[in-house]
C-alpha cells in the first residue's frame, strides 16, 4: 500500500501491484474461492489508489498542467467506471460467469487508465512540478491511502473538498467491516 518515493514512483508501484493481483486472479481455476479473496484485495488497492489520486494528484494536475482540467476529468471518469465494475464484482462469486466477465472488463479499463497515466499524465506532471513538490505529493498520497475507503462507493464525491472530508470516515467504516469479516485476508 505505501511504497515510498515521489508521487509518480508511488503510483507506478501501485500499478505494478494491481497488475500482479490481476495475474494471480487469472492463475487460479475459475471456481477457486481464492479468486474472491484476491478480487477483494484488488478492490481494496484500486479504491485506495483512486481516492488518493482524486484527493491529491488531480488537483495538482488541474492547477499546473496545461489542459489539466480536461485530463483530470477524464481520469476521474475512468475511476468512476472502474468503481462501478468493482461494485458489480462485489456480489459475484468465483465460478459465476459474470465474475470472469467483470474481471476481464475491469482489467481492460484499468490497463487503459494506467497506460494513459504512465505514458502521458506522469510525464506532463514531471515537466511542470519541481522534485520537492512531487516528493510531498508522494507523502500525501501514502497518507491518504491509509485512511481511504476499501470498498466501492460509486455515489461518493470524487473531487475536493467533499471527497477529502468524507473519505476518511467512510474508510474507517470500511476497515472495521473488513476486520470483522476478514475481507482481504488470505483464506
Helical proportion? over 70%
Number of DSSP helices? 6
Q: Which blocks of ≥5 consecutive residues have pLDDT under 50?
A: none
Mean pLDDT across all residues, rounded? 90
> Largest sheet at a glance?
none
SS strand fraction? under 5%
End-to-end Cα distance? 20 Å
Number of strands: 0
Name the overall outline. Answer: globular
SSE order, as H and E?
A: HHHHHH
Question: What's the quick description here?
Answer:
The chain is 77% helix and 0% strand. The chain is built from 6 helices and no strands.
What does this structure look like?
The protein is mainly alpha-helical and 187 residues long. 77% of the residues lie in helices and 0% in strands. The protein has helices at 7-27, 34-64, 68-90, 97-128, 131-147, 162-181. Helix 1 (7-27) runs antiparallel to helix 2, helix 1 packs across helix 5 (131-147) and helix 3 (68-90) runs antiparallel to helix 4 (97-128). The longest helix is centred in the middle third of the chain and has 32 residues, at 97-128. The chain starts with 6 loop residues before the first helix and ends in a 6-residue tail after the last helix. The mean pLDDT is 90.
Task: Please supply descriptive tags for the structure shown above.
187 residues; mainly alpha
Chain-wise SSE layout:
Layout: H1 7-27, H2 34-64, H3 68-90, H4 97-128, H5 131-147, H6 162-181
Helix pairs in contact: 1-2, 1-4, 1-5, 2-3, 2-4, 2-5, 3-4
